[in-house]
Amino acid sequence: MYDVAIVGAGIVGAAVAHRLRQVWPQARLLVLEKAPHPAAHQTGRNSGVIHSGIYYKPGSLKATLCTKGREALYAFVREENLPHEQCGKIILATQEEELPRLQALYKRGLQNGIPGLKLLSSDEIPHYEPEARGVGAIYVPVTGIVDYQAVTQRLLERSQAELRYQAEVQALTRTPEGYRLATRSGEVFQARYLIACAGLQADRLARADGLNPPLRIVPFRGDYYELRPEARYKVRNLIYPLPHPTYPVLGVHLTRMISGQVEAGPNAVFAWAREIYSRTGFSLQDTWEALSFPGTWKFFFKHWREGLQEYRRAFSKRLFWQSLKRLVPSLQEEDLVPARCGIRALALTQEGTFWDDFYFVSQERSLHVLNAPSPAATAALALAEAIVEKAQQTWSLSL
Known about the structure:
Blueprint: E1 2-7, H1 11-23, E2 29-32, E3 49-50, H2 61-79, E4 84-85, E5 89-93, H3 99-111, E6 118-121, H4 125-128, E7 136-140, E8 144-146, H5 148-159, E9 162-164, E10 169-175, E11 178-183, E12 188-196, H6 202-208, E13 216-227, E14 238-241, E15 253-256, E16 262-265, E17 269-270, H7 284-291, H8 294-302, H9 304-314, H10 317-325, E18 336-348, E19 359-363, E20 366-371, H11 376-395
Parallel strand pairs: 1-2, 1-12, 2-9, 5-14, 12-20
Antiparallel strand pairs: 3-8, 4-8, 5-7, 6-7, 10-11, 11-12, 13-16, 13-17, 13-18, 14-15, 15-16, 19-20
């Protein structure tokens, strides 16, 4: 009998295990992960950016936990001597009509307490990114880069939890003592409490627990290119466009990674499978669940122009390059080499709006992290603290 079973060994699940060990040193903790290793999906398939928190609605959980989590993450990676760098980034306006949106974003950053923000004129931009061009920009010095897979692995080590990989939870059964969890491999585990950090499978696990969550996870694929080694000098650190005003993406951007590679992307297109990473990957179950949900079609209807453009760019290297060339005019199409892709768990409501904040559902002895979008990796340590506090209120844990 374990005290707490955590489903999901991404960075959120790992951070929850780490936090539980801090507040409950004697707890028997179990982490179940369907993949053969931790950080296999969203955590290990992003650009490794430590976000500042500039984009998020002031007062939202995203804004407050990103700021708190960013500083906690920097402290953790320094203490653990994990590779990282606080390198800063610029957010570019490339056309005059974008300048009011740039000013609004700058004011939002000030509201969110982002330190060191600076508005740049077109002449100042090359001092920060010599190859970038725009009519104005925001310099964000607290943005950084890190290896989130390494962070996840270290959090799990520090949690001293029992780890079980290739342990996909197929059935949840409530018992008088807590939960009985049966995996696809036939193993059965028992725990007094359950915390589900299941990412792309979050809504399914909540339904398996007898809950009726108001959100549906719909997968969106993001494709990346990387720059040839000879072209990496064109990007000093991180170069972003202004985020789209209505479509839930930041736009394709250029990111120097902790490995020294420079990634370009991602785009955002509807995916036909939650965890198949090829462009033509298809799952009948995943597709049926997404397309039978009314909110998906309402979302498509609201954003069909943006979605069509994203799909065209997903299958056209030239269109992808043209989007990046707006930021760095010296980039050549041959500088781009196809790279990996990731799949984002987009949480949609019945009305077709995306839920743009963290979201939990809970009941006696269980808590499900139903939505943990970006900046969940940056915010993970603060998010885990909030999750454990909420769990303690729900379950009256005897710590």
